């Protein structure tokens, strides 16, 4: 992608699906910033230059292998001093003003930029843009799966912030259908771009919502992590597919659609509480055809996803009198393995087991990974269907 050097006011525009327009540029320290304009946006083509004086980008973190599990643990000390719940006039994700030197210089619809305090990157296996080359990068998947004491690698990759709106407060579920569709287009575009970067093995878009989850910014936003390895959860999934059948996800979808745990469905998508749900609130949203990632969705699937996903999120909020904290995790196939077997799906989870009760992971769950669920999945599905029924149809 042709990204302008810092200092240019107008970025070259690219037309994406659904009338969304993409405008890439750079921040003062060289980090990538991309504006995604809604169809029919009132914003002009010119965007303000980031005139801040910023410190040099941090050194890329390192990651250490846990020889007992094979997991790679990133040690990113720079993340310790992240901004915590700022006021509206100091929101780092709002458009810049004379008194708020935030991360985004211009008014925007949707904006995506490289995180200033990343767990992965900015170094990659080869230098890209303003990022340096990694000094001790992973040497492929075989290198990463090898076990040994004291093994370290540079934590190559990319961490990006996805701002759903310029407003100070909200979430994905509070957006309009048009805005949700723009975000979906941005997710798909970034998934394709990050998957093409050297050293990237898996791309993970997600939204953390609510202080109970650990959110440090109330601004409506999500993140995208581009990992230098296949994550532990997906590695275990690949093993499960090997032990069952390559069409495992097709079987899961047929099994759930024939049962009592479906909570919402359309022509292209079905949302259901899974048979073995761990969390008090847990919903999976899956496309009806095999698609490895968001970039693989066609226009019809993206068009239906926007209102259906909004209604699902608003249904979750309708369970109680106050908004529910959650993690909305878009699981995608790895970049280089499992593309024909691992299907894209959303897994939305919340620890909220009552209006004023949370499920805490202690003893058995946290230490041993042995879960005990307090709410039967069928009961959870019935409650969620009833809550969704109170939500008006979501229209553009």
Automatic annotation (TrEMBL):
<protein>
    <recommendedName>
        <fullName>Galactose-1-phosphate uridylyltransferase</fullName>
        <ecNumber>2.7.7.12</ecNumber>
    </recommendedName>
</protein>
<dbReference type="InterPro" id="IPR005849">
    <property type="entry name" value="GalP_Utransf_N"/>
</dbReference>
<keyword id="KW-0862">Zinc</keyword>
<dbReference type="GO" id="GO:0016779">
    <property type="term" value="F:nucleotidyltransferase activity"/>
</dbReference>
<dbReference type="Pfam" id="PF02744">
    <property type="entry name" value="GalP_UDP_tr_C"/>
</dbReference>
<keyword id="KW-0479">Metal-binding</keyword>
<dbReference type="InterPro" id="IPR036265">
    <property type="entry name" value="HIT-like_sf"/>
</dbReference>
<dbReference type="Pfam" id="PF01087">
    <property type="entry name" value="GalP_UDP_transf"/>
</dbReference>
<keyword id="KW-0808">Transferase</keyword>
<dbReference type="InterPro" id="IPR001937">
    <property type="entry name" value="GalP_UDPtransf1"/>
</dbReference>
<keyword id="KW-0548">Nucleotidyltransferase</keyword>
<dbReference type="InterPro" id="IPR019779">
    <property type="entry name" value="GalP_UDPtransf1_His-AS"/>
</dbReference>
<feature type="domain" description="Galactose-1-phosphate uridyl transferase N-terminal">
    <location>
        <begin position="77"/>
        <end position="230"/>
    </location>
</feature>
<keyword id="KW-0119">Carbohydrate metabolism</keyword>
<comment type="similarity">
    <text>Belongs to the galactose-1-phosphate uridylyltransferase type 1 family.</text>
</comment>
<feature type="domain" description="Galactose-1-phosphate uridyl transferase C-terminal">
    <location>
        <begin position="257"/>
        <end position="385"/>
    </location>
</feature>
<dbReference type="InterPro" id="IPR005850">
    <property type="entry name" value="GalP_Utransf_C"/>
</dbReference>
<comment type="pathway">
    <text>Carbohydrate metabolism; galactose metabolism.</text>
</comment>
<keyword id="KW-0299">Galactose metabolism</keyword>
